[in-house]
């Protein structure tokens, strides 16, 4: 007998990988998990859970504060007073997953507390209501759905407590209260393109685009914050996102370095926005496949508008994050906008919070002088979304303006979106703009309500009043430019003085001995008005030298014995060439050169200008950004006393400063020069530049120069020396 033929399972390929069929309990668990995961959007589910937790905490805290002998009507049944312990215990569990007869009253009291006592918004009330309604709706299958009522047959309460008359009455009262007191809608102020550019300009002044990582931790944290804000704001303006939708964006959602083969290989990035509010409803309504992929956005460069260029700002931010912060490429699940701790450390596994972004928006708009600290908070979570949408629908020039169907798609609004939503974002702004008469007192009042967005004014001929105002403005700007040019000229004269000081310090003792070769050119005479007069440099027994700022201070302490003094030099020479000698001779101009030798210099108009003197701070800032060790501070002071340091703005050694310079300088400069002199002369004169002996007597030198100076003052007092300011 032939063996029985095995029946062929049509779906054998699909279950071949499953060892054994799941049990009913496993399927039930999968059912419950899937319903909870996919029933609502993740952000909505999370928000609902937070509302429920707050409600339960409020109920327990309030219940514990109540006295047993308090008003018994709180625990009443249908208005009949009772103080049964069982009733009070049932009220304690009114917010459990399985509701009881006190759940409607507890929810109504919680809503009253939040709205009428804490004065929160209507949206908060709706969130609380929706959270508890969803909680009880999914409890015990279909038992707690529908109108809340008492079933006489089963002797139990059924339906959803959120749909009870008690809760609906308080919802209606809340709507009336918010409508009466709120008046106008409290929309987020739109972050317009003009505001974006103003904030960007302010941010660039703080930290330019090409700023390298800063050695100071606090300054670098501030630098990182500016880079992140520029990318976040530009991306939000381009994608029209709510702030809460963008803070969770990850690296895997964006693809860089793409090229559009159909449009001249123009570079672009592809951004997939996954947490857009309301997209779960698209799935519920069984949209076609094209709509389900509507979360993909292609971003090109916005030429000439870096403040709103989401592609450019995001690329710059990610490049900096990978190169200087993480020092390796981002992983797919790394957040694009990570959290930054209070000490400036980037928290890789956490995203920036909504509160942090809101704080930054306020800080940047106040810094850019868009708003003041007293009006802070007008830019909220929808500011970039509203600003981007309004620009493309209302304010963009020509063909850059988008029609309503593109606006609806780009903003993620459903086809059946309530008209009030788009009115709130678009038409309200248009109506407000065209009926805004805040400039009524302007000499030429704008007529914004005569044409769409006042565009007719752009093509209208200027009036006489407009021409008069424009002319006056041009005259004012011309005068301002003249004043700026005058200040620039004065600054240039001071710069020439500093250059002359530097040249004076580097000239040999006998200027006539220097016979530099010169090209075969005609004699050249500097104009008298450009003559620069240098003061005489007093002799202190050492020769001023220009030394390299890269050489350590400890290696540059050289004692010299040259005691020459150079006479005043007037830098207005006439350079003549003698072909027979093959050299150039430097001759002073006769009567037209100034002979003044003391600082400050005499200006052409007879006023006296004081040259800005500068003494470098100690410890010195090195070329790599770090500060020099404090143990070398005294060596750096001695070095600056003996030699100039042009690299750091010290063009004349401190020992060569004339007394007049200090007399005409600020008290801070004079005091700093005096402190430097105490340390330098103690080492050079008292200890004959013997470093070993100096350090043996002054171990404080290894701490810092301030402690060392105080120790030297004590020694000088013991020696009976008189310390005088120059």
Automatic annotation (TrEMBL):
Lineage: Eukaryota, Fungi, Dikarya, Basidiomycota, Agaricomycotina
Biased composition annotated in UniProt, kind: Low complexity: 508-523
Basic residues bias spans: 1-13
One GO term of the biological process aspect: DNA integration
Species, as recorded: Psilocybe cf. subviscida
Transmembrane regions: none
Compositional bias ranges of the Polar residues kind: 542-554, 577-597
Protein name: Tyr recombinase domain-containing protein
Positions of region (Disordered): 1-46, 508-554, 576-606
This protein's UniProt keywords: DNA recombination
Any GO molecular function: DNA binding
């Amino acid at each position: 007998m032939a063996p029985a033929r095995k029946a062929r399972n049509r779906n054998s390929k699909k279950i071949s990988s499953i060892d054994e069929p799941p049990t009913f309990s496993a399927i039930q668990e999968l059912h419950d998990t899937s319903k909870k995961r996919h029933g609502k959007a993740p952000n909505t589910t999370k928000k609902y859970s937070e509302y429920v937790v707050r409600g339960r905490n409020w109920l327990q805290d309030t219940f514990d504060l109540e006295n047993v002998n308090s008003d018994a009507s709180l625990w009443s049944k249908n208005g009949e007073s009772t103080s049964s312990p069982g009733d009070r215990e049932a009220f304690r569990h009114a917010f459990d997953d399985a509701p009881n007869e006190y759940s409607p009253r507890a929810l109504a009291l919680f809503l009253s507390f939040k709205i009428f006592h804490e004065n929160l918004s209507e949206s908060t009330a709706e969130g609380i209501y929706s959270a508890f309604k969803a909680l009880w709706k999914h409890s015990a299958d279909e038992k707690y759905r529908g109108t809340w009522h008492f079933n006489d047959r089963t002797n139990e309460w059924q339906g959803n407590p959120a749909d009870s008359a008690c809760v609906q009455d308080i919802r209606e009262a809340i709507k009336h209260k918010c409508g009466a007191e709120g008046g106008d809608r409290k929309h987020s102020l739109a972050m317009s393109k003009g505001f974006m550019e103003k904030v960007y300009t302010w941010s660039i002044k703080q930290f330019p685009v090409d700023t390298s990582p800063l050695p100071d931790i606090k300054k670098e944290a501030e630098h990182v914050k500016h880079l992140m804000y520029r990318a976040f704001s530009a991306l939000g303006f381009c994608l029209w996102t709510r702030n809460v939708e963008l803070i969770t964006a990850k690296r895997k959602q964006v693809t860089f370095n793409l090229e559009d083969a159909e449009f001249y290989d123009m570079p672009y990035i592809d951004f997939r926005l996954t947490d857009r509010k309301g997209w779960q409803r698209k799935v519920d309504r069984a949209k076609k496949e094209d709509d389900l992929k509507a979360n993909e956005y292609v971003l090109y460069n916005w030429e000439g508008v870096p403040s709103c260029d989401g592609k450019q700002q995001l690329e710059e931010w990610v490049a900096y994050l990978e190169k200087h912060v993480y020092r390796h490429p981002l992983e797919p699940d790394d957040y694009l906008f990570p959290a930054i701790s209070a000490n400036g450390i980037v928290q890789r596994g956490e995203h920036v919070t909504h509160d942090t972004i809101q704080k930054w928006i306020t800080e940047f708009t106040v810094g850019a002088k868009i708003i003041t600290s007293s009006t802070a908070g007008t830019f909220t979570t929808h500011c970039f979304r509203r600003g981007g949408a309004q620009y493309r629908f209302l304010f963009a020039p020509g063909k850059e303006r988008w029609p309503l169907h593109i606006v609806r798609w780009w903003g993620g609004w459903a086809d059946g979106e309530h008209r009030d939503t788009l009115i709130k974002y678009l038409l309200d702004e248009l109506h407000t703009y065209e009926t805004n008469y805040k400039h009524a007192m302007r000499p030429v009042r704008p007529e914004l309500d005569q044409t769409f967005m006042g565009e007719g004014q752009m093509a209208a001929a200027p009036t006489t009043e407009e021409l008069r105002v424009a002319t006056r403005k041009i005259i004012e700007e011309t005068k301002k430019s003249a004043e700026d040019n005058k200040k620039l000229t004065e600054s240039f004269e001071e710069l020439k003085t500093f250059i002359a000081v530097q040249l004076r310090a580097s000239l040999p003792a006998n200027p006539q001995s220097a016979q530099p070769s010169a090209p075969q050119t005609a004699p050249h005479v500097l104009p008298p008005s450009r003559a620069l007069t240098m003061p005489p440099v007093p002799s202190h027994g050492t020769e001023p030298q220009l030394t390299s700022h890269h050489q350590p201070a400890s290696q540059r302490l050289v004692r010299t014995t040259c005691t020459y003094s150079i006479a005043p030099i007037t830098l207005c020479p006439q350079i003549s060439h003698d072909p027979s000698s093959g050299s150039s001779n430097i001759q002073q101009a006769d009567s037209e050169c100034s002979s003044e030798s003391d600082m400050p210099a005499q200006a052409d108009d007879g006023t006296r200008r004081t040259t800005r003197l500068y003494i470098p701070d100690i410890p010195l800032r090195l070329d790599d950004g770090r500060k020099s060790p404090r143990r070398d501070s005294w060596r750096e002071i001695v070095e600056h006393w003996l030699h100039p340091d042009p690299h750091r703005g010290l063009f004349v050694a401190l020992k060569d400063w004339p007394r007049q310079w200090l007399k005409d300088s600020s008290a801070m400069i004079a005091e700093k020069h005096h402190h430097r002199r105490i340390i330098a002369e103690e080492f050079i004169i008292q200890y004959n530049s013997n470093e070993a002996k100096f350090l043996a007597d002054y171990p404080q030198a290894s701490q810092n120069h301030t402690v060392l100076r105080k120790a030297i003052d004590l020694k000088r007092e013991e020696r009976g020396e008189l310390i005088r300011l120059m």
